[in-house]
Amino acid sequence: MSDSIIRVLIVDDHPMVAEGIQSLLESYDEIEVVGTLSNGQEAVDRATHLQPDVILMDLNMPGLSGLNATEIILERLPKTRVLILSMHDSPEYISTALSHGAKGYILKDVPTEEIKQAIDAVMRGERYLCTGASGSLEPKDGNTREALTGREQTILLELAQGKSNKEVALALDISVRTVETHRKNIKRKLGISSTAGLTRYALEHGVLQGTSPGL
Predict the structure, then answer these.
(1) Does residue 94 contact residue 137 with C-beta atoms inside 8 Å?
(2) How does pLDDT run across 176-194, given as a tens digit for each residue?
(3) Distance (Å, rounded) from C-alpha 78 to C-alpha 129?
């Protein structure tokens, strides 16, 4: 990766949003926009070739979600920094994104110049949360529940959509036994004994909504 030019990939299914961000970033000499893609699967398919330093990733896109795309890309390109772009400021969305490896979270209503600030921050190795996002993550008293790992969050998303262990294994290219192990750990950590309970938890905490297109 270049030390002088920051290679940025934009992934958002709203063309006007992507074009607006691209126009802003291209006004900076030190930034090169290497691509604008419209869904998570495209990002997974092309990230290795494009070699971005920073990816601006929308959460809610048709098909592969921004969360799942982030996790897959970071397994292949661990030095890439992912900044999540979203309209949602709930703590569940933000903490889930960070647990999947994102280095920052920006709400879509921030001034466009703040996107450049966020890119600079993550390139310095810092985590960046816009004001609305950081306020949502203030610690709450009595929150002692053991946190889910990024992989457990991904599997929870799949299970909450009614998929069987075998279907989840095929979707994530892992073994059924691995899914079963994660499923047991998720239930233990959340104190939930049924699949219906997992779905209810995902809905109540905004996790399942994170995979819905068009939000």
Answers:
(1) yes
(2) 888 888 888 888 887 777 7
(3) 20
